[in-house]
Amino acid sequence: MKLHVEPRIVKIWAQFKKEKPPCSIALDGYVKGEPRFDAKGSYANFNHHEDVDRLATRSTCCQVHVAIKQGLIDNYRTNGKVEGNIFVNDPDQDTSLAYWLLQNHERILGRKSEPLINRLVNLIDLLDTTAGVYPIDPLSETMRKIAWIFEPYTNARINGRLFKMDASEMENVIEAVNERISRHVMGEICEIEPDCRYERIGGGDNWAMIKK
To answer: Residue 27: which of 41, 48, 42 has the closest Cα?
Structure first.
């Protein structure tokens, strides 16, 4: 499947189907609105940001994981070869993992199951669904591994480059993260300490914390 990165672009469902070729998949906010699939042309939208109950809706990577298990890829085969176009507007953790799953669908088709893949999808699902505030010890072994896998994205966000990146730069981040996902699910043990700095941006009962 071919990746198309269009930084900060957001489409609506009708526009996506009209403008994009058959066998196209939108990930994590590229198409605004609830998850959808149209078998006529094989258009799919995996998203959990608008028009949904956030806590009751799976993250994009988890939606993709379940869809692959349920036969999604059969809709993207031409003469036995899997073909399609994947559209994204951001290289975040959820998007990058969803893309990796689509590119490595043969590892999770049907009854195939790899514990490290399942564990990673489940964890990113919990973290992304809750905007990163699911209660997990940030210094645990699990979170140190997650910090290493997604370090290319985290670094781009922390230093401010993310919001100015062009398509090729975002694609480089996704590919770098995907390479680390592949190493992780093959059992390679790599860890770094998560950046847990925060900044208080409010007061009283209505305060919040954001990572720098």
So the answer is: 48
